[in-house]
Every structure is written in structure tokens, then in C-alpha cells.
Design a protein that fits this description.
By secondary structure, the chain is mainly alpha-helical. The protein has helices at about 15-50, 65-115, 120-145, 150-155, 160, 170-195; strands at about 5-10, 200-209. It starts with a strand and ends with a strand.
Length: about 210
């Protein structure tokens, strides 16, 4: 006597679970394309529009009073700190552009695969997209916090001392990490739902000869 076990499908799930996820990924990918273009173009625009030398904005008052010269020097220090801050932010945005570009590629592939109904590969691609989005987003946010929420001159200026700004960095930290966790948790929940709903129902058949 030989016993064979085979799984027979009971019913096929609606193809619109995978197609719906494909549409969702397509929309997200479109936003990522815009984000990539913005992240790459912004540093270029800032570099072209932001003069590196303060004298291009206001010439040094050679014939001015000591007070005017001291004020100009203070403004120059302020400007140099601002330019340095934006240079660091520009470098971060370039990295963000690369990260967004990778997400665009993976998102595009996952959209096409899901729309064609290739469930297993599509689910894996979306899972990879979520992992890249979460890890890359965490890394970018960590680098952003190292640069600082705002330039140092804002924290050290006399005007800023009138208002207590010490809460900004902790608040940004909470909001940033919260956004990363909540957004990627939401993506994982959608992926889990589609994975469950798109899985064919099977029946275990026992046949004996």
C-alpha cells in the first residue's frame, strides 16, 4: 500500500490583492522619483544660488567705522557658518537621492512583478523595499541629527536665547524615529495582509493505492 499526499487548491484568491499592492507601490514609487529629483537638484541649486564669499553680498567697509567693520566681521562669521551648514546638508541630500533612487528601482520591479501576478517574488521584493526604506531612513536620520536640526549660530545667538530652543532637538528626535517606525510598520501591515489574502487556499488530499 502506498500513501501519497498532495495539496489541491480549493479556491484561487482575487488577483486584485496583488494588483492593489502593485498600484500602491506604483504610487509610492512615483513619489520616490520626485524625491530623488529633488534630493539631487536641491544641492546644485543651493550651490549656485548661495554665494560662498560674504563679500559678494556686502563688500567690506574699508573706509567705515570700527563699529561697521566689527558688524561686517560678525555677519561674515554668521554667513560662513550658514554656508558650512548647507554644505553638510547638501551632502546628506545627495546620499538621500541615492537611497531614493534605489527605492525607485526596487519599487518599479515590485510593481511590475505584482501586476503580473507573481506573488512570491512580488512579496519578497516589497519586503526588500521596506527593509531598504527602514534601514536607509534610519541611517539618514542619524546623519541628520549629527549635523544638527539647525546651525550652531542659532543656538548661540543672543536672539535665540530669548526663546528656549532646547526642546527642538529632542522633539525632532521623537518625531523622526516615530515616523520611521510608524510608516514602515504600516507598510509591513499592508504586506502581511496582502500576503495572507493572496495565498491560495489548499486542501490536503490523502490517496492510497
Amino acid at each position: 500500500m502506498r500513501v501519497e499526499s498532495a495539496y489541491s487548491p480549493i479556491s484561487e484568491p482575487s488577483p486584485w490583492w496583488l494588483k492593489g499592492l502593485a498600484i500602491f507601490m506604483g504610487i509610492i514609487t512615483l513619489f520616490m522619483v520626485l524625491g530623488t529629483v529633488s534630493a539631487i537638484a536641491s544641492p546644485i541649486l543651493i550651490d549656485r544660488l548661495l554665494p560662498g564669499d560674504y563679500e559678494e553680498i556686502e563688500p567690506y567697509p574699508v573706509d567705515g567705522s570700527e563699529e561697521e567693520q566689527a558688524e561686517w566681521t560678525e555677519n561674515e562669521v554668521f554667513w560662513n557658518e550658514l554656508v558650512e551648514y548647507y554644505d553638510e546638508m547638501g551632502g546628506l541630500m545627495e546620499i538621500q537621492g541615492v537611497h531614493s533612487g534605489i527605492l525607485v528601482i526596487v519599487g518599479l520591479f515590485s510593481t511590475l512583478v505584482l501586476w503580473r501576478g507573481e506573488r512570491d517574488l512580488g512579496i519578497k521584493l516589497v519586503g526588500s523595499w521596506i527593509a531598504i526604506n527602514a534601514l536607509g531612513g534610519a541611517g539618514l536620520f542619524w546623519m541628520f541629527m549629527r549635523i544638527g536640526v539647525m546651525p550652531d549660530f542659532t543656538m548661540n545667538s543672543q536672539d535665540a536665547e530669548v526663546i528656549d530652543l532646547s526642546f527642538i532637538e529632542p522633539l525632532t528626535l521623537v518625531i523622526g524615529w516615530g515616523q520611521i517606525i510608524i510608516c514602515n510598520g504600516f507598510f509591513l501591515a499592508i504586506l502581511a495582509l496582502v500576503s495572507m489574502k493572496s495565498k491560495p487556499e489548499v486542501l490536503l488530499n490523502d490517496r492510497s493505492d
